[in-house]
Design goal:
homodimer, Alpha-Beta Plaits, 2 domains, eight-stranded parallel β-sheet, five-stranded mixed β-sheet, 13 strands
């Protein structure tokens, strides 16, 4: 029998608490879909291309991957449209939790290591049992924790990004920070490309921004967190993060896909890192955009970020300049905020090309637990950065009380200026 | 927020023991995949197209269907190939076990009732929690029980079908039964179209075949079960089955899709029905063949037959005259035989156009736990029915010891005649 019943089975045969389920999209000239599906399950676990003597039945039962579903698209039953046609199908495979440690890299290697290079195959989703997920602390703050730090209960948060991103001195960054805070911005983040640069060294800009935050707080009452960008080797990132926290840092920014999920995870699960961590999606475009290869956006920017402990996850909005289908942004949001065992909910941060006219759509899509994040949409306001922040806050408040932006513009000069400039159009902005 | 987080969630958020998971294929001009997916989950449970006052949050939480996955095919992320292109996707929905009773019709109505008519949508698979599956006794005999009745431990069983199927008298049927049994056939079944007909009334043919079976047993030692076709109203079927058993019947045949899963289930779960039940797939072609509509073959001929308590499930083989893709036949086999809580394994019976030359492929596909089932392949043998049976038994024995049919033909006149006539070709036969 070519189809080992240990490998080919049905989902009911496996204790859902003891397996990680992975869903793949495959296409290609497969004359034998089951063989191809089995190649994933076996090849990613115990198997090699020849029988080896050490593979005992016991070892196989404990460790081999299983194929629990093979679904052709469309679901041909009695004949194929042509013998030579490419076939498209989804495979649901199951991997014993016994095969995994607590490293996210190991998870990815197990479910999508070598097989990621085996032609057109894309990892679409993972279902993790509680036993496995318990190895991860997840977000230390999450949505509720970040709200508590800011004292903001029931409205979307507003975040802005330093623009220009390179070349400003610590003093200039501090001044710009103050303007953003004065405009009602809840979080200010470094640009993700900002390294520990000579013109604005890490500690100097941290100090300048913390002072600006304190001044804004005392003058306006606005609390504003500063997410400083962590760069360098994994060790340097860790040391820098600890130093920043000891100097009073209020948040950290990290390029999760560039530095690796486990670096972020080490950071977020360390007791000394007592501030929220923002996960930036830089380089995510190397993973998800192909419809037939890579790893889905809901995994790399949703579930895996949350497992790694990101308190906020940035991703392209459906309405700006970096394209992502609306459904995909919503699924990322669902991965970040749906009940997921003990893991706190992480804030969805749909980003890039956001201006006040898009606020109603973002709130409609994500509800109140969303961070409205803008760079050019704040700093490019005709009346300046603080006005740019205020225009966003006015847009948020109008939306929450059910007023149209057009209507609210009549009462608010800042919103009116933004509205006149950008309207409610998608795809404008930076 | 248009996407109610109670409805749109991730699989980890639901206790797998409390939900039935259904996987659908959908295609169409969906501008909003999530809305379409939500329509299934809500529309098949609590929802209607307008809010109704009785739908309390508590009622909703307890009963509403959930969308746990929406996977576009291919997995587009940042753009669609064209705005007007048809979209294809899989939806994984979850339905609370609290919504179900113990009726299989209710299961189908809940997961694929109204929605089956909503355009191009096909139900591909169901995952049932143990709590739900425990409501079903499943096969009373299963593979092991049928083997025990026959005293056959480690070889594929051989089944044959009366041919011609209409017009024979009880005496003629008895004689033909004897020939089949003498040829080494383990089970003889009525043709599924044979009603309780004047020329061969139910009790008369039962008596004739049981006598023939007794004669064959005493003369040759071969035990042969007779699966008599149950027809009539549900009440009549039940009464007839009980009467047959009291008269010594050894098996029952039923057209599961024509009479309904719950009729079969009532029969198989009744203590008085102490014989195996064969489920015939007549009319299954009204359910599974469309790649974009209906219900998959692995459900209607695999999982649901097993739940209903069929001990043997007939389905088209990949090598005969009724088409079904090989992968699909294998998945039916996996649904029938994979571990599935307390439910006994049911025999896969790949059928239609089977001749001895196909035996090696069937054993290669299904292993030893398969029933080789033939009509014309037995009765159309050049040396007659008994020789036809023997040719099959010779083919089975040769395959089990690793001999090619060509080689074994040299030693066995019956196999040789069949091999010369049909070779090992697929798609020949009746």
């Amino acid at each position: 029998m070519p189809y080992d019943p240990t490998v080919f089975t049905i989902r009911e045969s496996l204790d859902p608490g003891e397996f990680i389920f992975a869903l793949y999209y495959l296409e290609g000239a497969a004359s034998d879909l089951l063989r191809k599906a089995g190649g994933i399950a076996i090849g990613q676990t115990t198997g090699t291309w020849v029988p080896v003597s050490q593979e005992t039945p016991e070892l196989r039962r404990t460790h081999v991957g299983r194929v629990v579903g093979v679904y052709e698209i469309p679901a041909y039953e009695d004949r194929l449209p042509s013998e030579s046609a490419e076939r498209r199908f989804l495979v649901q495979a199951a991997f014993p939790v016994a095969n995994f440690d607590d490293q996210l890299a190991a998870l990815l290697v197990m479910v999508f290591g070598k097989v990621s290079m085996a032609g057109r195959i894309k990892l679409l989703d993972l279902t993790l049992p509680e036993k496995y997920a318990r190895r991860f602390a997840g977000p230390k703050f999450g949505i509720e924790g970040v709200r508590e730090l800011l004292g903001v209960e029931r409205r979307p948060l507003l975040m802005s990004i330093f623009k220009p991103c390179l070349g400003l001195s610590p003093k200039q960054l501090g001044d710009l920070f103050f303007e953003q805070a004065r405009g009602g911005v809840d979080l200010v983040k470094d640009d993700e490309i900002l390294p520990d640069i000579e013109s604005a060294p890490f500690e100097a800009r941290l100090e300048a921004c913390l002072q600006a935050a304190a001044r804004a707080k005392s003058e306006t009452g606005q609390r504003t967190l500063y997410a400083i960008n962590l760069t360098g080797s994994p060790d340097a990132i860790f040391a820098k993060a600890q130093r920043a926290v000891s100097l009073g840092a209020t948040a950290l920014l990290i390029n999760v896909l560039a530095v690796g999920f486990d670096v972020v995870r080490a950071l977020t699960s360390d007791a000394s890192i007592k501030v929220p961590v923002l996960a930036h999606p830089a380089m995510a475009g190397a993973f998800y955009p192909s419809p037939v290869q890579g790893i889905s956006s809901e995994l790399v920017l949703g579930k895996l970020v949350r497992l790694a402990g990101g308190d906020l996850s940035l991703f392209p909005s459906a309405y700006g300049t970096v394209p992502l289908l609306r459904e995909r942004t919503l699924r990322i949001g669902q991965q970040l905020t749906s009940p997921f065992y003990h893991l706190r909910r992480a804030f969805p941060v749909p980003s890039a090309g956001i201006h006040p006219g898009l606020v109603p759509r973002l709130i409609d899509d994500f509800g109140l637990d969303v961070v409205i994040n803008a760079g050019g949409g704040v700093h490019g306001h005709p009346q300046g950065t603080a006005a740019g922040g205020r225009a966003f806050r006015q847009a948020i408040e109008a939306t929450l009380v059910g007023r149209s932006l057009e209507d609210a513009s009549r009462d608010h000069a800042e919103l009116r200026a933004a509205y006149e400039l950008w309207g409610t159009r998608a795809g404008v902005g930076e």
